[in-house]
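Rotation project, supervised by the postdoc (A.L.). Task for the rotation student: set up a whole-complex structure prediction and record inputs and outputs verbatim in this book. Inputs entered:
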Amino acid sequence: MTEEEDILLKKCIEKYGEGTWHRVPFRAGLNHYRKSCRLRWLNYLKPDIKRGAFVDNEVDVMIRLHNLLGNILPGRTANDVKNYWNTYLRKKMVKPSPKLNIEVIKPRPLNLSVPLDKNNNNKNDSDHAAASTPASNSLVSSDSGNNSSYDFSNDNNEIMWWKNMLMNEDEPQGFGNNINHSASGDQFIIEALGDVRTQVVEEDNYGKTTIKFQPMLKNVLNSPLNGEEVLAKDFTPCNKDKTIN
DNA sequence: AATTGCATCAACCGCCTACTA
DNA sequence: CTAGTAGGCGGTTGATGCAAT
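Outputs recorded:
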């Protein structure tokens, strides 16, 4: 894309916002496929993108969380993380042991099966947290009976979705506030991820599925830094798990 | 100075999933 | 329930720049 096209695309996004990418080429007057426009915006033009070399703390977080969150790193584009991972880190990683019957569902702020508390009144309810999982995770909570959806039309809504994912009923102020770690890398994790909670689906030999919401940060902070990837099985269960027959 | 090999990173491609009519 | 469409992700490619020879 040329510089002029970048400007057109940027103006278009500023005017209409992100999303409905199929309309972006027409709106911006660009002769590019919708995916190209989206990629250009997300990986290059978006204003809050952090560019330049990865600092040690970021690499630290990446190593610890890559197996769980994939190419998600606060402030960085997925493409950047992916490139860095493939270039530098993949070769160094110890081959992970097979993860039997465990599936980690990464947080994806799409539509939810149940609306979040729009007053940002975090009630630390693990059932609520389960219901707040994106509808893509179809194993989750069929007992709510509420099919209304929640859209992430602005950043606040997405932040709320994360907050909901992060809540821990035992430690209302969040793990990050209760852990005293001196290492700068750990501090970075706390600042960057707060108290991210990870959803893990386990299936036993009889096909019974259990969904567990596990606090990520505490385990991440205790995880080794010797190149091993963090595996879901290393996480200790917490809160009220849900069992689906 | 020219050539070669490697590193980097933006972009492409194909597939999967969610949504909707 | 099904098919079509859009959004998103991961694997991969290709252009470019730089260092080594």
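Student's summary: The beta strands of chain A are 102-105, 197-203, 209-215, 242-244.
Supervisor addendum: Chain A has ten helices and four strands.
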